[in-house]
Amino acid sequence: MTSSVEGQNLDSSLRENRVFAPSAEFAAKAHVKSLEEYEAMYRRSVEQPEEFWADAAGELEWFEKWTRVLELGEDGSGNGAKWFVGGKLNLSHNCVDRHALGARKDKVALLWEGEPGEVRRLTYGDLHEQVQRFANVLKGLGIKKGDRVAVYMGMCPELAIALLACARIGAVHSVIFGGFAAHAIVDRVNDSECVAVITQDSSYRRGTEIKLKAIVDEALEQCPTVKHVVVYRRSDTAVKMKEGRDIWWDEALLAAEHECAPEWMDAEDPLYLLYTSGTTGKPKGLVHTTGGYSVQTYLTSKYVFDLQEDDVYWCTADVGWVTGHSYVVYGPLQNGATVVMYEGAPNWPEFDRFWKIIDAHKVTVFYTAPTAIRAFTKWGAEWVRKHSLASLRLLGTVGEPINPESWMWFHREIGKERCPIVDTYWQTETGAIMIAPIPGAVATKPGSATRPFFGIVPEVVTKEGEPVPDGKGGLLVFRTAWPSMARTVYGNPERYEKAYWVEIPGSYFTGDGARRDADGYYWLMGRVDDVLNVSGHRLGTMEVESALVAHPKVAEAAVVGRPDDLKGQAICAFVTLEMGHTVSEELRQEIRQWVAKEIGALARPDDVRFTEALPKTRSGKIMRRLLRELATTGEVKGDTTTLEDFGVIAKLRGDEE
Ligand code: WT7
């Protein structure tokens, strides 16, 4: 834990002693009404986890009941654990049919607003029809249970329908964030040998069209396994349709049968893949399975967002990330909630678009990211104060540690000091929320994710796995198995073991630093590995480095994060050039652009610093710690004794702008 982002957060959070208890009014209507109730439920959930999770699972519909709730891995740990063994269910059935065939047929399921301003409302009944018909379209293409289907779309109802239709027939979806470049699509599609891609002509963002289909066309030149492309018509912009491969969503839907019975999925059948960055150059495809994932996304949505029948729930995350999977689509829909979806940017056409949406649709629960809150703060409270926001009753954050000042701004300006804030800590790998306050029960402290969710046993340990006393920083691990944990890395089980289970034997290692205070509250301190968090998006330093060295003029590259007021971390790249090339501003821009083209705009380095050499140890390892220090403070004061060539530091410093 050497980066100063972590240090800063630790410093400010150590000074933080404000506590905000839920109001009596909020608590009275909440699912969990007091700390005592939370503690009793928590105690039962960890003392009798099988009984606890069986009760939770019992709130969903199963075609066949499980025979065992939990079967631990061979070594008795969560590594290799199975949940709801022998149970059969279908997540699209629990998200849609259960409500459409029950009392919620005419309740709005998806309330969508396009960036240009159009609004669409789909009831659970509508969703039932659309999902079944689209599932039949997929079946008609010969797509069957177990086939991988890539989804590359913008935020629109059809994206949710695509996921639910895949889940319905047992096809394994692999959503690729619409901001990723063609190259990133190629890697992901080929790694899991997708048979089809679902996309759309274009999507709107900040007033411009993102031509998704054209990017798919470029990618598919290098994806031999893809036989079909289904194109949703969003903007009617001109696209090329490849004969025999590409079909239009609307035309296929018209021809499709109305009824499609859900596939009976085994609890441990894969539901989806989602690629995320790790410490190597290649993103890993985490595999989430059906039963446990359904149960924990359902239960966390119910309790952490305290979902009530009349809530209008809005999570601003893109479905391209895990937050969108679990808390735009699967969690809230299993709860029968009304889910708001917005297509575009928060500052389009003006800085108050989100607040307009909240007032227009009477949003009650609003879940967003600290990086967004920092942007709102910068744009100014005037934009917020033009709107009432009176409908809001609960706020949430996710993606990175929230600094106490941003928390206070969110509390004051958006929550009007009335709404509890749930700071939710979790990861792509955990599938669902792990640490967060239960809002009617647990008092909040600005900057802390507070206490574990039911059934979750976090611990702060040393590198050797020894418990660290309260108040001291260490590594965050989870001691016991939880239902929504990713089961493996697609096609690479060794990488899964190595990344999560080897570091601290017997425990799941998160890659995060944390400390626990005397009240049992967890304070997250950021990543302790070579993973960056840029605007709440995860990026591997190695991933950016491999994009950099793929540039013909770049010889070597090292990437580090440096603290950034808006993004949390900014990407700082140190680059050495191949012989014969000279440093220029033009080349710097070319290299930044190159990375954006290789990975996507979110990976574009903020700084590119040219240097003659990189600091390495005698065994040839790049000393990122020194680069991080240099990028952050402009100085290197840390321990340099293992450095191979002491002259390097002077050279690096000399090259600073
Ligand atoms: C990493 C996971 C979980 C969905 C969004 C990101 C950081 C996430 C918090 C939080 C402090 C957080 C961690 C984690 N993180 N939420 N509330 N407080 N840090 O998912 O891309 O898998 O990234 O995000 O560092 O390991 P992800």
From TrEMBL:
Residue span(s) of domain AMP-binding enzyme C-terminal: 543-621
Entry's EC annotation: 6.2.1.1
Residues of the AMP-dependent synthetase/ligase domain: 102-481
GO MF annotation: an example: ATP binding
InterPro entries on file: Ac_CoA_lig, ACAS_N, AMP-bd_C, AMP-bd_C_sf, AMP-binding_CS, AMP-dep_synth/lig_dom, ANL_N_sf
Modified residues (N6-acetyllysine): K621
Enzyme class: ligase
PROSITE patterns reported for this sequence: AMP_BINDING
Keywords in alphabetical order: Acetylation, ATP-binding, Ligase, Magnesium, Metal-binding, Nucleotide-binding
Catalytic activity: acetate + ATP + CoA = acetyl-CoA + AMP + diphosphate
Domain Acetyl-coenzyme A synthetase N-terminal span(s) in chain numbering: 38-95
Binding-site list for ATP: G399, E400, P401, D512, R527, R538
Sequence similarity: Belongs to the ATP-dependent AMP-binding enzyme family.
Name of the protein: Acetyl-coenzyme A synthetase
Species, as recorded: Edaphobacter aggregans
Gene: acsA
